[in-house]
């Protein structure tokens, strides 16, 4: 019997109808739209039209990621950007981690009014990532269970908001083949940084144990945007839209979009 895919509860895409400024919110690798849903809700409360798509292979079954390439994730982001462009006068792209890579690549290849990049890994120094093309055979999956304090942080915030306590929605087992696609996406994005010209805000954290702070500098130096804002957090780990400085992230993102939507005002 053919297996019918299901989406993990809480891992669905989200859409908030608002005004003439749209925002595409892109989540990270092995995660789900829940990673950026609080941010999306905040932007919607400010009057924006917000779309947070579920990227292919995410929030279903960890084995599904074996069937997708980085081009599929990019195409999903491009599709979302074009959808918002058809509905709104102005469109911004906000991406976290892998979503930040997609935001940068979209900035290099498509028209937008600005982008916000959070903790995007434009350079991986882990040698094993470059060897995934053959590691995927003897080691198809690795255990990447999150045992950090973030789990409790998210549970507490979900309780405070009166939401179902789904916790952090992401895969604990990671497809080695998919890690290879993330690595390739990072390389392609880094090569195209010089084509990014839209106003850009970069948010990184010094306490991020996943993406080194040097990535912030690579992004800032690599793009050709006339407007570049840089903000460095000091307490949050990698998941900036859900960690302890999330309200700062929300405020910075809102202020940037508002300023670039009305640059002369």
Structural class: alpha/beta
The CATH C-level class name of the domain at 14-123 and 187-261: Alpha Beta
At the fold tier of CATH, the topology name of the domain at 14-123 and 187-261 is Rossmann fold
The end-to-end distance, rounded to whole angstroms, is: 60 Å
Tally of strands: 9
Spatial order of the strands forming the largest sheet: 1-3-2-4-5-8-9
Q: Order of helices and strands, N to C?
A: EEHEHEHEHEHEHEHEH
Unreliable spans: none
Give the CATH architecture of the domain at 14-123 and 187-261.
3-Layer(aba) Sandwich
CATH homologous superfamily of the domain at 14-123 and 187-261? Alpha/Beta hydrolase fold, catalytic domain
Indicate the radius of gyration in whole angstroms. Answer: 17 Å
Largest sheet: 7 strands, mixed
Tell me, briefly, the overall form: globular
How many DSSP H or I helices?
8
Protein model, in words:
With 265 residues, this protein is α/β, with parallel strands linked by helices. The protein has a domain at 14-123 and 187-261: Alpha/Beta hydrolase fold, catalytic domain (Rossmann fold, 3-Layer(aba) Sandwich), CATH 3.40.50. It is 37% helix and 16% strand. The protein contains eight helices and nine strands. The protein has helices spanning 34-45, 70-87, 98-109, 132-135, 150-161, 176-191, 214-222, 246-261, and strands at residues 14-16, 21-26, 49-52, 90-96, 114-118, 141-143, 173-175, 200-205, 228-233. It has a seven-stranded mixed β-sheet, with helices on both faces. Helix 1 links the parallel strand 2 and strand 3 (49-52). Helix 2 (70-87) packs across helix 3 (98-109) and helix 3 runs parallel beside helix 6. The longest helix is centred in the first third of the chain and has 18 residues, at 70-87. The protein is globular. The mean pLDDT is 96.
């Amino acid at each position: 019997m053919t297996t019918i895919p299901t989406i993990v509860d809480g891992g669905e895409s989200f859409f908030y109808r608002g005004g003439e400024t749209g925002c595409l919110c892109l989540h990270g690798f092995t995660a789900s739209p829940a990673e950026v849903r609080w941010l999306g809700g905040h932007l919607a409360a400010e009057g924006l039209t917000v779309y947070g798509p579920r990227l292919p292979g995410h929030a279903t079954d960890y084995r599904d990621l074996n069937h997708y390439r980085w081009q599929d994730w990019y195409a999903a982001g491009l599709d979302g950007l074009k959808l918002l462009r058809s509905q709104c006068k102005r469109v911004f792209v906000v991406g976290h981690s892998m979503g930040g890579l997609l935001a940068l690549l979209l900035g290099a290849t498509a028209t937008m009014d600005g982008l916000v990049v959070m903790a995007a890994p434009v350079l991986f120094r882990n040698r094993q990532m470059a060897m995934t093309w053959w590691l995927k055979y003897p080691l198809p999956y690795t255990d990447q269970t999150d045992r950090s304090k973030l789990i409790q942080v998210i549970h507490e915030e979900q309780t405070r908001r009166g939401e179902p306590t789904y916790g952090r929605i992401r895969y604990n087992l990671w497809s080695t083949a998919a890690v290879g696609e993330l690595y390739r996406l990072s390389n392609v994005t880094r090569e195209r940084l010089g084509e990014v010209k839209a106003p850009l805000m970069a948010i990184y954290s010094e306490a991020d144990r996943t993406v080194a702070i040097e990535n912030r500098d690579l992004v800032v130096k690599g793009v050709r945007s006339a407007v570049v804002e840089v903000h460095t957090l000091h307490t949050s780990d990698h998941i900036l839209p859900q960690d302890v400085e999330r309200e700062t992230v929300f405020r910075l993102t809102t202020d940037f979009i508002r300023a670039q939507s009305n640059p002369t005002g």
